[in-house]
Each structure stands twice: as C-alpha cells, then as structure tokens.
Specification:
The complex is a heterodimer of chains A (648) and B (421). By secondary structure, chain A is an alpha+beta fold. Chain A has 10 helices and 31 strands.
Chain lengths: 648, 421
C-alpha cells in the first residue's frame, strides 16, 4: 500500500506540473516543466529485493542556454532593425513623392519668376511671385521642423530606453539575489519560475540594447554592454544615464554612471543602438535639406541685389536664412568663441565641422566621418568649404568648437520681403545709343558705327574699362567719344571717368555696385564695339524702367543652374536626398525583415525546447491520470485483500 | 523531431495572415492612389528620378507659359507694325499723287491736311498699348508714353529707351518679344539711306535732283567714314550754257568746318540729261537748273518717320505756283518718298523679324510639348501603378489570405483536448 501511495503522489505531482504547463502555455518567458521521477532505492533487506515505489526527484524546466542566448542576440538585432525601420519610415513619409515633396514648391517658385518675366510690372504677377516664395519657405520650414522634431523624439526615446534599461538591470540584480538564496535546497528543487523570469528580463533588455551575458558559478547572471561595461554583477546593478553631447548640446549621449564615461559609441544593437544609427541618418537628411536652403536663399538674394525693384532701387533680400550655428564644447577651458558666416553658398556642404585647437594650431574635421578638411587661415579667420569662421578670445589647448552651416537652415528660412514692388525684376541699366536732351528725350545723332551692349554683371571689369565709382550707381551716365580712341563718362555733374578705345578691343564701362544693398566687388559692365567711332558720338546708360524683365528672367533661370555644392541644381540635389533617404528606408526595411526572420527562427528553436505543446500536455494528462487511477486501484486492491483477511 | 509549442503555432499562423494583409494593404493603396511609389523607400532610384522628372516638368511648364506670352506679345506687335506699313503705303500713294506735275498747288495744300491726319494715325500706332496699359514700343519704360511732341509742337521725341524684352522658351533659347520704338520709328536714315539730296531754297531753276549710289563702299567711306558733304553749284558759262562745280568738305555744308576744309573735286560744263558722277555716287537732274542754283549731298542722317511725314506736310502746305517753287516742292516730295522707303524697309524688316520670332516660338512650343509628353510618359512608367497587374496581385493576395485563414482554423481544430472525454 505504501508503494501505491508513492505512485499516487508521483502521479499527482505529474498532474499538477502538467496543469501548470497548460495554464502557463501563453505566459511569456515560461519554460515547460517536466517531472523527474525515479524508482525508490529498495530498503537494505536480505533475500528477495522488492521495489519500494517511486520518488519524484525534481521538477526541471526544459531549457537550452544556447537557444536562449541565440534568442537574446536575435532580439537585440531585431530591436535595432525595427527601430531603424520605424525611424526611416517616418523620414520617408516626410519626403513622400506626392504631397510632402519640396519639388512642387521649387517648381512653383521658379515658374512664378518666369510669369513675372512675362509681365514685370504687373501687380498680380509680383504678388504671385511673393506668394510662391512664401510657399517655398513654408515647405522648407515644414520639412526642417519635422526633421528637428524627429531628432527631439529620438532624444526622448533614448532617455526612455535608458530608463527602461536601468529598471530591467535592477530587476535582474534583485532576481540574482533571490535565486542565490534559494539555491541552498535540494539539487532537484530549482527556482524554475524565478529563472524563467530572469531570462525573460534579459530578453527584454536585449531588445533595448545589445548585451552579453555570462553565468557565474553561484548561479547569478552578469550582464555587460557591447563594449564591456558591467550592467549587472551579482546583486549589483550599474546604471546608465544620458547627458547632452559635449560638442552638440542638442544630442544626447549615453554615459556609464559609475565612471561618468560616454559610452554612446559602444552601444550596439537593441532599440538604443537603432536610435543612434537612425539619428545620424536623420541628421544627414536635415543637413542635406539645409544645404539646399542655404544655396537657394543666397543665390536668390544675390540675384535680387543685382537688379532694380519697381521703385528703381537695388532689390533687398527676398529670404532670410539663419547664419551657420556655432557652439563651443562644454569641456572648453579657454575664453574663445567662434562665429561663422557663409562666404560662398555654392561651396557649402552638408557636413558639420569640428574645430579643434591643439598645440597652437587649428584642425578642422567633418563631424560625421571625421575626415580632415583643408582650410586657409588669415589672422583669426579660418576659411573652408564656403564658410569663414572667426575666432575671438583665446582658445585653450584642447578646446573644440562645432560649426553647423546647414543644420538649422531649412527650419529657419523665411520670406522677409512683403512689398511686391520690392521684387527686383529689372536689370540696373538700359544701354542706348544717343543722348538725353533737355526734354528727357532720347536723341541719336551718332555718325559712327559703334554700338553698345546691353550689359551684364561681372566681378572683373575689362582691362580697358572706365570704372565708375559706386556712388554714381543708378545715375544716368553719358558716354561721349572725345576722339577716335578715347571717351569720357559723365553724370549730370560732369565727367567721372574716361576710357580708351581701339577698334580691336573696343571699350568698356563698368559701374561698381554699392554694397550694401548690392553685392560687394561686382560691376555692371557694358561693351562698346565698332570700327569707326566719331568724335561727339554719345551713348547713354539709363536706369531701366519697370518694363525690364532681365533680372526676373535671371531669377527664373536659377532653377536650372548648378548652385548646390557647385554641381547640382536645387531640385537635382533634392532628388539625391530623396534617393539617399529612400535607400536608407529600403535598406532598413530589408534588414528589419531579415532580423525579424532571424528572431522568428531563434524563437522557434527556443520554443521547440521550452515551449508548451498542448497536445503533448493532453497526452501527459492522460498518462498521469492513468497512473493515478492505477495507483488508486492498487490501494483499493490492497484494501480489499486486507478486508478479506480481516473478514476471515 | 522538432517540437512546436502551441503558442508558436498560433504566432506563426497569425504572422502569415498579417503579412498577407500588409501586402493587400499596399495593393489597395496603389489602386486608390494610382501611384506605385508613395514613399522614396518604395523604390529609391525611381523616386529620385521622379523628383528630377517633376522638376523638369515644372521648368517646361514655365517655358510653355512663356511661349504663350511671347506669341501674344509678338502678335500684338505684329498688328501694330502691319498697320504702320499700310499707313506708309497710303502716305506714299498720296506723295506720288502730289508729285504729279498736273497736281495744282491748291490740291497740294489740301493734301497737307490729309498728311496731318496720317501723322496722328502714325503716332497712335507708335504709342500703342497692351491690354494692361503698357506701351509696346517704349523699351523698358513701358509706363511712359514713348512718343510725344516737344513743347514747341514741332518735333516728335522719344521718351522710351532701347530695352528689348526677352523671354526664355527653353533652357538656352530666349526670344525677343518686343522692339524698342527708337529703332523702329526714330533712327531711320533719310534720303536713300546713304546720302540725302537737298535743293537750296534760293534756287530759281526748275531742276530737281535724284541721287543714286554707284559704289557703296567708296560712297560710304566719304559720307559715313569721313562725314563729308558735297555742294554742287551751277554757274553761267556765258554762251547760254552752264558749268558745274562740285565741292567736298567736312561736316554740314556751309558750316565753318566745311568751309575751311572744302576742296573742289570736279567741275565742267553741264550737259542737260547727263548725270554728275563723283566719289561713287551720281546725281541726275530733271528740269532745268539755272545759274546760281545750289544742290547739296550730305550723309543720310537719322530722321524719324514722324519728321518725314511732317516734311511732306510742310512741302505740300508751302507749295507755290511758280515753276521754281514747284521744283522746290517736287524736290522735297521726292526726298520724302525716298525717306518713306527707308522707313518702310525698317518697319517691314522688323515685321519680318517678328514673324520669324513667332515661328521660332511656335517650334519652341512644339519642342516643349513633345518633351512634356515624353517626360509624362517616363514619369508614368516610374511612378504610376500598373492597374491590371496590381488587381491580379490583389486577387492572388486575397486568395493566399483566405488559404492562410483556413489553415489557421484547421490547425486550431487539431487539439487533443477536443477528443478528451
């Protein structure tokens, strides 16, 4: 009867374990448990050795450390890939080909310039051009703001991921303690539930950040980050924290709190790793967009300043764009500050730059990629890639500065011209043969065959040019031949310059633009050509009337000029950006698919060891039920035998 | 044998269903938007090309619009120039009629009134405005009336400038859509375009002179190159005959510069009907010159079409009855007719240029259109959903989804617990 009782006990344990398996079939992290039973060692009797029943030696969980580790690794990859995918999806949605694109706004702007060229004095056309400019700057703002928002969101996601990591590591440390304290008991009685819980926490942790895990001899788990910082050692959890980047305060770094060291670079895998990769892509996209904004606004403003508005003044800026952002590293010890400005918008790149002062000399490197950039230095001004950076104060050895020419350009663009008459549709001068008489009428009594060109802008006047000072810009200028090889240029007050003429190289008159409002170092130049100038022949440069469309045409032609980085049009550069972002998006999608597949595979193999199969449990249920019934029957039979003995 | 956990079976079955649903979602999107790509990541290379194509289409739209505007402007200009040439023809007809020897002085004075009205009409064409009120022939000063009388009311002056408006009709081609009024109406050479003949008002003979150019380069080198003028004087040779003297000098005949530089280049006895030839030009006289009569030959100068009309008016208005006066008038009318030819040539060639520009604009417009069509096709190939193929794929996906759902139900039904009592 005692033997049957052990069988009954064993069957009950089996039923309970099976029941536990069934009820936990869907509990995450649960490992299937099985009852380990063995025949009881017979009592030391002589003669016939009889079995003494069954004993339950333990309840073990079905667990494979290898499968579990693989799952953790796959989970880290999947966490990173899915974060990257969702970030890239968001970026791609932003640059969607139909509604969100910059292209319609760009095309609309340059088409409005063409329309204006068709009727340069039309109030409607002028208003429409301003409207198109507003639409364009709004579009830049929307795209730029979205990218900034995404960067800010990434920062807060990094914060929350670090918070979750800290919670998980402290939980794991606590479980290490609990598990350690329960190991004292019999070798068969492992705290299966706690072990499952701890493994599940490690799995959750690996989704957030790639970790490596080692099991200590005392049964506790030690958890390390990718580059070896200890997160959990026995009962102790070590925290991660976040801190603004020393150079770029808008970006968060992950620091290892016990040492205060920045560990961002060592973070691999997991949501956190994905966030860091995504952040650099988002930054690059923002800079590319900013590069277009910088190139466009500078080119348009320059063209504006070359022409006359409806009131006959040189055009003021149409757009404003923030100057390059500069920032001193928080670790700097010197008193130096830097300011940067764009000197040549066509040469501006999409890079951020790091200026480093070491041993009395500056070095300039790109922040992403760390490539060395060549620069020229004159006094306290460094010039490189279309920028000029001025250092004031005294830098200390090891000081660093960040220069971001394009990062905030797209969000900062605004249309600053509000008066439609301020649009410079006209070129500064119209060239006429003849002179202006006292009635203000144009009279041509020239007898020679010299003609005057309509003129163009140049930075280098011809060698034989009569150069007119900027103070005379905008005045009516009369060119009069004083001989067959000389001419004088005069304004209403008298002669201001004279030039020489030859039939081979002709003559030139260059009027310097006043700066500001005009560009510096630029001239409006006309050419005189012909073989037989006659003394007294006159030509007159008159400020252009409101019917002139040359500058509007030039504004419209900017859209087809290679002005971004000196090699791409605005829309061409945007197409490259679209392609790059699309590539990143597609790559992220494919990596995510692969990582999810690997995770599914790892889950499958882990589940094939640890998962609960209902059919199996049903069979076990039947098995133990039968064993229980049989043992009960054995007791019943023994009882019956006993009764019959009693009844004798 | 691989074990499958029950939760894994559910999860993977659900995963399959979800994947099919995602696919169907994508096909639905393509069907509803008609676009294959909505995000660059759908097809990065195609998306970048779509941006380029869209921007090229944007430029083409601008050029197409300029083509329209150019045709409109050129059409307006053409209309005005056509009216002006027709008017010049009418003036010419009137001039020829007035130059007829049988026309009386009174008729000529009446004709003067007609010329005045023609002059007004010409002013109207030259000051034509577009529907926006901008003057067509004012250069860039389109807000200012370009042609106006001076304060004395004797001369028409030009208040515009030489600006010419151009519009871009392709990346490299710009078409001029206007012409400045000074080149059309003001700076027209008078006489035969090389020189003009004048008869002194003191002439008493009945001769009128008409010039011709025999050697253009020789004539021009004297007239335009060195700014020389000539004086032809007739004198009595005593025996009822005439002699002529041709003098050449620098500048306007009679001016101090001319007087100080004049030299006699030819002289001789005058044979009626035989022309005088000198320095690559020749003069023919009809009627009889009298001793003491003077004619001048000077380089053609710029004379506005308005001044030409006014000269005609004055010639007709002041025409007298004596033979000498008649000859004076005839000389003036002849000069006007020559100058009218110059104006006609100038405006006519401008009109021809406008016609050529209209044509080149049209062909630019056609080129724009064909590139537009081409690019739209390219864009459609890159970005538009292929409807039949999408519909087929959607059908396939929905079939797969049904199969996956059915399989899920089947797997779910296969539980041992179902068979337990």
């Amino acid at each position: 009867m005692r033997i049957a009782l052990t069988g009954l006990d064993a069957a009950q344990t089996g039923l309970a374990t099976t029941g536990n398996n069934i009820s936990n079939a869907n509990s995450p992290g649960y490992s299937r448990e099985t009852v380990q039973q063995a025949a009881q060692v017979p009592a030391g009797q002589t003669g016939l050795i009889q079995g003494t029943g069954v004993t339950v030696t333990g309840i073990t969980r079905s667990f494979s450390q290898f499968a579990e580790s693989r799952l953790w690794q796959a989970n880290a990859d999947a966490g990173s890939a899915s974060q990257m995918k969702s970030s890239m999806d968001r970026l791609n949605n932003l640059l969607s080909t139909s509604s969100g694109s910059l292209t319609p706004a760009l095309s609309g702007f340059f088409k409005a310039a063409q329309t204006l060229a068709g009727n340069p004095s039309g109030a409607v056309e002028r208003q429409a051009f301003l409207g198109a400019a507003q639409t364009l700057s709004d579009r830049f703002n929307a795209l730029g703001d979205n990218i900034s928002r995404q960067r800010a969101d990434i920062s807060s996601q990094i914060n929350s991921a670090v918070g979750q990591i800290n919670t998980l590591t402290s939980e794991i440390a606590k479980l290490n303690v609990k598990i350690g304290s329960m190991r004292g008991g019999s070798p068969g009685s492992k705290p299966n539930g706690l072990l499952d819980q701890r493994d599940h926490l490690v799995k959750k942790l690996s989704h957030l950040v790639g970790v490596s895990v080692t099991k200590q001899s005392n049964g506790s788990l030690s958890v390390f980050t990718g580059n070896g910082q200890t997160l959990v050692a026995g009962a102790k959890a070590f925290k991660l924290g976040t801190r603004p980047n020393a150079l770029d305060g808008t970006n968060l770094d992950v620091v290892y709190e016990p040492s205060g060291a920045v560990v961002s670079k060592g973070i691999r895998g997991g949501t956190l790793g994905g966030l860091f990769s995504a952040r650099s892509k988002v930054e690059q996209a923002g800079n590319r967009l900013g590069q277009i904004a910088v190139a466009l606004t500078h080119a348009v403003n320059r063209q504006q300043s070359l022409g006359l508005d409806a009131n006959g003044n040189l055009g003021g800026p149409l757009f404003s764009v923030p100057a390059p952002k500069t920032r001193a590293a928080s670790t700097n010890t010197g008193s130096a500050t830097v300011t940067a400005s764009v000197s040549n918008s066509q040469a501006v790149t999409a890079h951020d730059y790091q200026l480093h002062y070491q041993g009395g000399a500056w070095t300039v490197t790109t922040r992403q990629g760390g490539k060395s950039v060549s620069f020229t230095q004159s006094g306290n001004t460094l010039s490189f890639d279309g920028l000029s950076v001025t250092v004031s104060g005294t830098p200390a050895n090891g000081d660093s500065f960040l220069v971001q020419p394009t990062a905030s350009a797209a969000s900062g663009v605004s249309t600053v011209l509000s008066d439609p008459s301020g649009i410079a549709a006209a070129a500064p001068y119209v060239s006429n043969a003849g002179s202006i008489n006292s009635n203000g009428a144009l009279v041509n009594n020239n007898t020679g065959n010299v003609t005057v060109s309509s003129g163009q802008t140049t930075a280098t006047p011809a060698g034989n040019a009569a150069v007119i000072p900027a103070s005379d810009f905008g005045k009516t200028l009369t060119i009069k031949f004083t001989g067959s090889n000389s001419y004088q240029v005069s304004d209403s007050g008298g002669v201001v310059a004279s030039g020489s003429y030859s039939s081979s190289s002709g003559g030139h008159v260059a009027v310097k633009y006043p700066s500001p409002p005009g560009p510096s170092g630029e001239y409006w130049q006309v050419a005189l050509t012909g073989t037989t100038p006659q003394t007294g022949d006159s030509y007159v440069l008159q400020p252009a009337g409101t019917g002139d469309n040359r500058n509007a045409t030039a504004l419209g032609a900017l859209g087809n000029s290679s002005l971004v980085g000196g090699s791409a049009t605005f829309s061409g550069s945007y197409a490259t950006l679209t392609g790059t972002v699309g590539d990143a998006g597609q790559h992220a999608k494919l990596s995510d698919q692969a990582a999810q597949g690997a995770l599914a595979q790892a889950t499958k193999s882990q589940q094939s060891v640890s998962g609960v199969n209902m059919n199996e449990e049903a069979a076990n249920l039947l098995k133990y039920q039968e064993a229980f019934q049989a043992s009960a029957k054995a007791i019943g039979t023994a009882d019956k035998l006993f009764q019959s003995i009693l009844g004798l | 044998m691989i074990r499958f956990s029950t939760s894994e079976i559910y999860a993977s079955a659900l995963d399959g269903i979800r994947q099919q649903q995602n696919r169907m979602q994508d096909y639905y999107r393509q069907l509803s938007t008609g676009e294959k790509i909505t995000r660059p990541s759908d097809a990065p290379v195609a998306a970048a090309r779509v941006v380029n194509v869209d921007s090229a289409l944007g430029s083409l739209k601008g050029w197409a619009q300029n083509v329209k505007a150019a045709q409109h402007s050129l059409g307006q200009e053409n209309t005005q120039l056509q009216s002006a040439t027709t008017l010049i023809d009418r003036v010419r007809t009137l001039g020829l009629q007035m130059a007829n020897g049988t026309t009386s002085a009174q008729d000529r004075r009446n004709g003067a009134a007609t010329v005045t009205s023609y002059l007004h009409e010409m002013m109207g064409y030259a000051n034509a405005q577009d529907p926006n009120g901008h003057y067509l022939f004012a250069g860039t000063r389109s807000a200012t009336q370009p042609f106006a009388y001076n304060s004395a009311g004797t001369k028409v002056q030009y208040h515009g400038d030489s600006g010419q408006r151009k519009l871009a009709v392709s990346r490299s081609q710009k078409v001029a859509v206007s012409d400045a009024g000074n080149t059309l109406f003001m700076d027209v050479r008078n006489g035969n375009g090389t020189f003009a003949v004048g008869a002194a008002s003191s002439n008493t003979g009945t001769a009128t002179a008409a010039g011709a150019v025999n050697d253009a380069s020789q004539a021009k080198s004297h007239l335009q190159g060195q700014n020389q003028s000539y004086r032809i004087q007739f004198a009595s040779s005593g025996s009822n005959g005439l002699t002529y003297t041709i003098q050449r000098g620098q500048g306007t005949v009679g001016s101090s510069g001319w007087t100080s530089s004049e030299t006699t280049i030819a002289s001789g006895s005058y044979q009626a009907g035989a022309g005088l030839t000198f320095d690559g030009m020749s003069l023919h006289f009809s009627g009889k010159p009298a001793a003491g009569d003077t004619f001048t030959v000077s380089p053609s100068s710029r004379q506005s079409v308005f001044a030409t009309l006014r000269n005609l008016h004055d010639a007709l208005d002041q025409s007298g009855t004596s033979p000498a006066e008649n000859a004076q008038t005839m000389q003036k009318i002849n000069n006007v007719l020559q100058s009218l030819d110059q104006a006609q040539t100038r405006i006519g060639s401008a009109q021809a240029a406008v016609g050529a520009r209209i044509q080149s604009t049209q062909s630019a417009g056609k080129a724009v259109q064909s590139v537009q069509t081409q690019l739209k096709k390219t864009r459609s190939g890159l970005a538009d959903a292929n409807m039949p193929s999408v519909i087929t794929k959607l059908d396939q996906a929905s079939l797969s989804l049904q199969a996956a759902s059915k399989a899920f139900v089947q797997v779910q039904g296969l539980s041992l617990f179902k068979f337990l009592p």
